[in-house]
């Protein structure tokens, strides 16, 4: 994606105050890398959410984080 050098990037679950330039891609990459790491380290969604909020304190859409945490930790089935 970086190689495309896009001027407009709309990440999933972005809010209207998000950056829609290359910073959005950088943020998404960092966020996914941390989520993958935490998935291996934590056992429950509450801990996952707390650690993600420590790393990304300005997250706006907490509901998406909470749902994702439940799915990633196996507390909630998906699909």
Describe, in short, the structure shown.
This protein has 79 residues and is an all-alpha fold. It has one domain. The protein is built from three helices and no strands.
What attributes does this structure have?
79 residues, 53% helix, mainly alpha
Report on this model:
With 79 residues, this protein is mainly α. It has one domain. It contains three helices and no strands. The two termini are 27 Å apart.
Largest sheet: none
In helices, the fraction of residues equals 40-55%
What is the string of SSEs from the N terminus onward?
A: HHH
In whole angstroms, the N-to-C terminal distance is 27 Å
The helix count comes to 3
Say how many strands there are: 0
The rounded Rg comes to 13 Å
Count of discrete domains: 1
Structural class: mainly alpha
Global morphology: elongated
- β-strand percent reads under 5%
Low-confidence segments, ≥5 residues, pLDDT <50?
A: none
Mean of the pLDDT scores? 90
């Amino acid at each position: 994606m970086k190689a495309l050098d896009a001027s407009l990037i709309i990440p999933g679950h972005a809010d209207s105050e998000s950056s829609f330039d290359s910073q959005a891609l950088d943020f998404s990459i960092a966020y996914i890398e941390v989520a993958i790491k935490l998935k291996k380290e934590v056992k429950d969604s509450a801990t996952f959410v707390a650690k993600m909020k420590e790393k990304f304190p300005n997250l706006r859409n907490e509901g998406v984080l909470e749902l994702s945490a439940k799915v990633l930790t196996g507390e909630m089935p998906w699909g």
